[in-house]
């Protein structure tokens, strides 16, 4: 008659260990997924920072006064006024 309580005790302890093992595996899988997500976001961040740097360089190139003057004189046919064309307003 004592065999039954030992068997039920063994099954109970085994179930507890299985639940603990499943919780551990679940946490480990969750941490692994989060690490992959973090790595993906860091990669996206790095590419965005590189694009930001490239766009800043492009902006400074487009703002260049030499470039603007060249476009004004060649494409827009603009020129500096002569002295007699300048009128000072007070």
Strand content: under 5%
Computed structural class: mainly alpha
Average per-residue pLDDT, rounded, comes to 93
Largest sheet: none
The SSE string, one letter per element, is: HH
Q: How many β strands by DSSP?
A: 0
Net shape: rod-shaped
Counted by DSSP, the helix tally is 2
From the alpha carbons, calculate the radius of gyration and give it in angstroms.
37 Å
State the end-to-end distance: 117 Å
**How helix-rich are the residues, as a percent range?**
over 70%
Low-confidence stretches: none
Write a short abstract of this structure.
The chain is an all-alpha fold.
List keywords for this structure.
single chain, 90 residues, mainly alpha, 2 helices, 0% strand, rod-shaped
How does this model look, in words?
It is a single chain. With 90 residues, the protein is mostly helical. 78% of the residues lie in helices and 0% in strands. The longest helix has 60 residues, at 3-62. The relative contact order is 0.04.
């Amino acid at each position: 008659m004592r065999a039954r309580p030992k068997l039920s005790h063994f099954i109970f302890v085994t179930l507890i260990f299985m639940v603990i093992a499943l919780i551990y595996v679940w946490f480990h899988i969750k941490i692994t997924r989060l690490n992959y997500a973090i790595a993906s976001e860091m990669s996206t961040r790095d590419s965005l920072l590189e694009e930001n740097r490239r766009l800043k360089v492009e902006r400074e190139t487009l703002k260049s006064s030499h470039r603007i003057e060249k476009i004004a004189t060649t494409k827009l046919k603009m020129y500096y006024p002569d002295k007699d064309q300048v009128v000072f307003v007070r």
